[in-house]
Automatic annotation (TrEMBL):
Keywords: Glycosyltransferase, Transferase. SUPFAM superfamilies: UDP-Glycosyltransferase/glycogen phosphorylase. Gene3D superfamilies: Glycogen Phosphorylase B (3.40.50.2000). This is Glycosyltransferase involved in cell wall biosynthesis. Residues 34-186 form the Glycosyltransferase subfamily 4-like N-terminal domain. PANTHER family: BLL3647 PROTEIN (PTHR12526:SF636), GLYCOSYLTRANSFERASE (PTHR12526).
């Protein structure tokens, strides 16, 4: 009887078999950065609760004493390995070390995050470990990568298609891209939307001199494809009475940061990075509107956090954002559009409140338990491939 067959029988009897699952290619957990890390933490912890053995490969923050690092978190076993401190080599160097460790201690299934790690897939496959790759968004479109980096990402996508037993997409738009470009299927498993209670804690917001409902909000890394400059320019041209609060920074581009700041007037407040998650949640929940400019990354965790906080959202007009928001959103592409949606939101507070409530209804569709269901089902299917060499999920 195959692992998948045993899963079906076990599910009926309430005694599903236990799998060992490796999660590779991210910064690791606890999640402090990015959608991949949040997904690893939320899904990994739920898989542990369901009886699976989960190992997560984590990047060392420094070369300090190993005793300062967690060996376990929320039931997941953690392996901390080094990485080169370089924008172009950090991910690949850490994944290389992780794969070298994994093949010496193989698991039933490997989940690799980020198509950029695809060059290591043949090594995992050669060890007989079925592997799924979460391919992320269209990384090669990001302006921070020059021509060499963009070519690398395009080639890595092709390697992921060739050597993965399954591909995971977090948005229909990503599924469509892999179907059109490579003619291959993907498994659609989106992210979950964390739920934030209340309408913004007045005490936490007061720490920043803000009040619930008294500001517009942007949360984004300062990168061209996140369109922070378009938001700031459009807002500054508006007659808005509520300030614009900008959370985020530019890890690699001082020039872009300078451009964004040059477009701002005195109603724009730059907070930099906010690493206090409770404070950040209260900023989302207390915003009059949330302006979302991300355009290339698939289903975006910041957008999901905004709808989980029941924020009224105006988003850059791309398929990924429309997929999440549908009729709950308002959409823009130019500074003039931003100006219009900001002014309209302040002129129609009741309509803005209705959109905020609609955001909360959209958030109900993005549930981490359902996400974990999708990953668990896929892991059982992958484990069954050990007896079906050459198959693809």
């Amino acid at each position: 009887m195959s692992v998948l067959d045993r899963h079906l029988v076990g599910a009926a009897a309430g005694t599903e078999p236990r799998l060992s699952i490796a999660m590779v290619g991210t910064r690791g957990v606890p999640a402090h950065y990015g959608g991949f890390e949040t997904c690893v933490e939320e899904v990994g912890a739920r898989l542990v609760e369901r009886g699976h053995d989960v190992v997560v490969y984590c990047r060392r923050a420094s070369d300090d004493d190993d005793g300062d690092r967690l060996s376990e978190y929320r039931g997941m076993r953690l392996v901390h390995l080094p990485a080169l401190r370089s924008r172009t080599l950090e991910t690949l160097s850490h994944t290389g070390a992780s794969v070298a460790h994994l093949v010496r201690r193989p698991t039933d299934v490997a989940l690799v995050f980020n198509a950029a790690n695809a060059p290591y897939l043949p090594v995992i496959k050669a060890r007989g470990i079925p592997v799924a790759t979460h391919v992320d968004g269209l990384e090669w479109k990001r302006a921070k990568w020059g021509p060499v980096g963009q070519r690398y990402y395009r080639q890595a996508e092709a390697l992921a298609v060739r050597f993965s037993d399954a591909l995971i997409a977090d948005a229909v738009g990503i599924q469509d891209y892999y179907t059109e470009r490579f003619g291959v299927p993907t498994t659609l498993i989106s992210y979950g939307a964390p739920r934030v209670q209340g309408d913004g804690d007045p005490a936490r917001l007061a720490e920043l001199g803000l009040t619930p409902g008294g500001y517009h909000l942007v949360v984004a890394r300062f990168e061209p494809e996140n369109h922070v400059d378009v938001i700031v320019e459009g807002y500054s041209a508006s007659s808005a009475s509520k300030p614009l609060v900008v959370v985020g920074s530019a890890p690699y581009s001082d020039a872009y940061t300078s451009r964004v700041r040059s477009l701002a007037d005195d109603r724009v407040r730059f907070l930099g990075g906010v690493w206090d998650q409770d404070l950040l949640d209260q900023l989302y929940a207390g915003a009059h509107t949330y302006l979302h400019g991300h355009s290339v990354g698939g289903t975006n965790p910041s957008l999901l956090r905004a709808i989980g906080a029941r924020a009224a959202v105006s988003a850059f007009d791309v398929s990924f954002n429309r997929e999440v928001l549908e009729e709950a959103g308002r959409y823009w592409t130019t500074p003039a559009d931003v100006r219009a949606v900001v002014e309209a939101s302040e002129a129609d507070p009741e309509g803005t409140l209705s959109r905020a409530l609609a955001s909360g209804m959209r958030a109900d569709l993005y549930d981490w338990d359902l996400v974990a269901d999708g990953y668990e089902s896929l892991c059982f299917q992958l484990a069954s491939l050990r007896s079906k060499a050459g198959a693809r999920v």
